[in-house]
């Protein structure tokens, strides 16, 4: 039974680790942007006369979105995750993120998906996820869980043992 649990946990860690490593580089930027709007409305000279104004997003936010879309951390059925876990508010999200364990990694994926995939149709969802800190908290929790069960993320121990520094 214990062996089965250990294999299950290692399978989860291996399934998430590479993708979480890809996104943790955004943690310092996300920390600096909590409570800050990361988009503006473009209102160029004379645009109101001939056209509608449109949102312009921070370039780092757009890089985060593109990198997240290249991972397996997104779940198109995130609405089901929200209904199954009775997530109805930002407070519910924050509470569940804080209490998440390795067994709730799919729930964390669902919350991240709401902000990344939801932003594909409603751009303000991206900025909400940065502003309220939910994207940051999901990435920090995923990193914490993986590091608890494996080793610190972002450190190539094999290269470090031999004194070789590997840049990405």
Could you walk me through the main structural features you see in this protein, from its secondary elements to its overall organization?
The chain is mostly helical and 168 residues long. It contains 10 helices and 2 strands; from the N terminus they run ααβαβααααααα. A two-stranded antiparallel sheet has the order 1-2. It starts with a helix and ends in a 7-residue tail after the last helix.
Low-pLDDT parts are 156-168
What is the SS-derived class? mainly alpha
The overall strand count is 2
Q: Radius of gyration, rounded? A: 18 Å
Write the layout of secondary structure elements.
Elements: H1 2-23, H2 27-33, E1 39-42, H3 47-50, E2 54-57, H4 59-69, H5 78-84, H6 90-99, H7 105-121, H8 124-131, H9 134-149, H10 157-161
Antiparallel strand pairs: 1-2
Helix pairs in contact: 1-9, 5-7, 6-9, 7-8, 7-9
Which key terms come to mind for this protein?
10 helices; mainly alpha; elongated; 168 residues
Describe, in short, the structure shown.
The chain is mainly alpha-helical and 168 residues long.
């Amino acid at each position: 039974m214990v062996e089965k649990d250990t294999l299950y946990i290692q399978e989860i860690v291996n399934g998430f680790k590479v993708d979480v490593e890809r996104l943790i580089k955004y943690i310092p930027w996300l920390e600096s942007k909590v409570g800050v709007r990361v988009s503006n409305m473009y209102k160029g000279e004379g645009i109101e006369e001939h056209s509608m104004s449109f949102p312009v997003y921070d370039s780092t936010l757009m890089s985060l979105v593109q990198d997240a879309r290249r991972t397996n951390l997104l779940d198109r059925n995130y609405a089901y995750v929200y209904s199954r876990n009775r997530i109805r508010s930002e407070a519910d999200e924050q509470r569940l993120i804080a209490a998440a364990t390795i067994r709730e990694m799919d729930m964390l994926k669902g919350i991240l998906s709401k902000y990344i995939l939801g932003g594909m149709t409603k751009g303000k969802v991206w900025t909400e996820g940065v502003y309220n800190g939910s994207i940051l908290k999901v990435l920090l929790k995923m990193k914490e869980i993986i590091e608890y069960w494996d080793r610190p993320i972002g450190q190539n121990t094999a290269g470090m043992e031999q004194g070789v520094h590997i840049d990405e």
